[in-house]
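Structure request: diguanylate cyclase, Dyella ginsengisoli.
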Amino acid sequence: MTRPAITRPPRWMRWAQRALYAFALLCSGYLHAATPLAGAWRDVREGDTPAKAMEDFRQGEMNRFNPALLQRLPQGARGSWVVLDPQPPWVQEERVLSIYPPPLGTVTLYDHNGPTVSLGLDDFQAAVHGHGRLAFLLGRDRQASKPLLLKFEPSARIAAPVSFRLQGWASYLGEDARWLVFATATLAVMLAMALMALCFAIILRDVTFGWYAGYILCYALIQGIQTGFVYHPLELYWLGGLSITVGSAAVALSVAFASLFMIRFCELQRFAPLLRIPVLALAVGMVAVVLMRCSQVDALENIGQLLVNPLLTLGAALLLLASIVAALRGSRHAWFFLAGWTPLLALTAMTSAQVNGALPGLAWLNDAGLAAGAFEAAVLSFGLADRALMIRRDRDEVRVLADKDSLTQALNRRAWNEAAILAMSDPSPRPQSLLFLDLDHFKILNDRRGHAAGDEALVAVSHALREELRPADLFGRYGGEEFVVLLDGAGEEEAMQVATRLCRRIHRLEIAVDEAHPQLTVSIGVAVRRANDSIDSLVARADQAMYDAKLAGRNRASLQRWHEESAAQRRVSRTGRVPQHTP
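Returned structure:
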């Protein structure tokens, strides 16, 4: 009996199935790694004790909440009690209780059978610390089903919503390592982009790169403080107790730098001039807020604290509006700004809504700020690179325009001199010759037919000469009706042949002058470079040879022999006849 053929799915489908299976296993392990929790909280009252708080929990007199979701704990003047009740199945093992995102204030874990432990982001004495969260290590001897009592100490900052997670030690270490890799990578991207921008600011002397670097560095500092990265693992001890002041200053400075960066990067002066002054005023206002916050004067500090949030809200809307207007009016780089800024702005709005109790299931928003910062840094870096390339292209175009004669499009005298000096600095033994060309009776053409006809003649002559010369030959307008050509690799014979050919070509243009001089011609002086020649001496000798050609009747080329200076040993050839001279 013949077995039916088994059709195997395509390779890509088999790999997709394996990937989905691995992802399912990973998610399954992740979901079951944490112990389910029930939670309750209430404000700390006068005369409260841990025992009284636990009694109220057992009596059901606390506010219930889901610890897996973000919960904002309104903190009174004395703080808040939180009780976490582990749910079955219970596993008696070494566990870790983590609080995410980490609150900036101090949190205390009470234990009747063991020591009371207090943790804070800027606490450098704790033996075990979470990265990106607060983490309490619970030993094996602690009963797995026993409720956990926490006290959130009052903080000067607005209480951000937090979630709680209870998991095994091995599971916690894996999750902690993944977060550490993620945070390190994103902060490294931001710092790398900022340092690169600082280098370009110095090299290009463009303050736009400096404002960008300041903005990215401040944002990286904000994220480092909010996630606790600057405390653990970086252990920047000098920030201990200064998180509120430094964080507020970093927020204000980031907006100031972003405003100054945007003014130049999006070219508001050109594309949105009416919005330039408000954006500049925002930058100045943010700097003033920083000075108030750091003044050590209570009244000024309070005013600065009151102004931060309104200015942040107003500033975000203003920068968004200015970038949209500039982009719609033709600013290429405003689109880069929008691409990098808009996701961060949306994320900030979602985080603000979360602080007010919305989106409790999106706990990842806090870490998304790191990813959004790295994304914005990369996008704006691409924009800056594009800007640098455009500046370079514009400079090259300006240089070309500055080097070219506007009428004939040949190199002008300055540019030709620079290029000729560079060509003569080549130590190779190849011969070099210089042709000095002067149009015959050009002044008469200008006087009889007008300057417009003279300009047309110069353009036609320049075009004809370029067609006869090689691309490597250095051709320029020396002044008026004079042109110069540096021939690389051409000795006496080759230079005279080229000069004679040029005389013939100009003669064939048949540019009329007047009755006495039927058409425009050219006289050419040829000089071969000596070992000790400079560009000035070479031009002087070719110029003298050109005058010899004029004296000999014009419309011809004259060679100044490099080994003789007397006029008797200079060879003059008429147009239409290749010169026959002895070496």
